[in-house]
Amino acid sequence: MLRLLLLAAACALASTTRANERGEPGGNSVGERYCIAALNASGRSASIEALGSRRVDDGDLTLVARDMPIGSYGIFMAARAQGYVPGAGLGTLCLGGEIGYFRLAPQIRRVDRTGAFRLELDLEELPLGPTLQGAQPGQTWYFQAWFRDGLPGLGGFGSHNFSDGVSVPFS
Questions:
Q1: Rounded distance, CA 115 to CA 28, Å?
Q2: Cα 28 from Cα 44, distance rounded (Å)
């Protein structure tokens, strides 16, 4: 048991160190990941992380999605509830209820050479369904990345896939 705790602490420290080395905001993961992402054309499962502060007044939260096919395009999505819809495209939709999309031209992201994209959030304008809402202390928001994907086993057929999900309880 002690060995597992030490391994978990070492992994957390290594993750924070890598985030700080990449210059990510705060280097702090403030959300809890949930749901399982399917494999994508990169050979990995995409993951999402919320970095910065969960305090609404700080206004410092960045979403980072990793392990996606280089050069593909994607967006982040938001909801106030978890969901589980397997077989959505090539992956699993992990959001429920009304889902909002960060889809305006400046928020559509291209996956960089490291297999990642990021978005600094404006916590006063989070998409929820067709409207924008501000995050409030005491609320939990759920986020997921959507991206174009074409698995080689499908003959490169273009489809879409998802990262895992991350929940952020705001304070």
A1: 20
A2: 23
**Residue 152 predicted with pLDDT over 80:** no
User: What CA–CA distance (Å, rounded) separates 87 from 84?
Assistant: 10
Would you say residue 133 has pLDDT above 90?
A: yes
| Distance of alpha carbon 105 from the chain centroid | 18
- Write the pLDDT tens digit of every residue in 81-95: 999 999 888 899 999
Query: Which one, of 56, 39, 41, 47, lies nearest residue 18 by Cα?
Result: 47
**Contact predicate 132/117, CB 8 Å:** no
Phi (first) and psi of residue 58, to 5 degrees: -70, -30
Please name the residues in contact with 159: beta carbons below 8 A apart, sequence gap of 6 or more: 89, 90, 148, 149, 150, 151
Instruction: List alpha helices for 22-82, DSSP H.
Output: none
| C-alpha span between 88 and 136 (Å, rounded) | 30
Model pLDDT for residues 51-108, shown as the tens digit of each residue: 999 999 999 999 999 999 999 999 999 999 999 999 888 899 999 999 999 877 678 8
Contact present, 150 and 156 (Cβ < 8 Å): yes
Q: Are 47 and 114 in contact (CB under 8 A)?
A: no
The dihedral through the CA atoms of 165, 101, 85, 68 has a sign that is negative
